[in-house]
Input
Amino acid sequence: MFWELIATVFAGIGGAGIALFIRTLSKKKAPKWLVPTFAGLAMLGFQVHGEYNWYDHQKSLLPNGLVVIKAVQEEAPWRPWSYVYPQTMRFIAADVNNSAKNKVDSDLVLVDLYFFERRHLAKRVPQIVDCVKEARTDFTTAFSPSHLENSHWHPLNANDPLINAVCEKAG
Output
């Protein structure tokens, strides 16, 4: 985030430089307010560009085997352009290559989900997916067979991207 702030400042300096160049070409006939206006527009443009390209950039950095299973697009009143073209501000990826079938019950698959959000660190959450019952639950270090019975299972649709990605690979 620090480097993004530095880049935003330099975008503003660049925008102000363009306005100063325009004023020089016009022999100071262009209005003075052009300089801060160009600086502000350059900084705003840089931030908007970064917001819209964040998801594609993060997705391109994912290693092989991490599959995006959900992307969340958001709109906000302080970003009125997002009502026309919503921004992807967070997404979930499943580590399909490192998922593991349970040796006792082959219907169960242990998989790590990674939660990515703009300007936040990624979070890893281990999950157990039941491919037959089409549900998932949190994995804890105190895992036991009784844990499965007492766990709160979250039902998933048959065409849920998590089921498709994990159970297809595990199957």
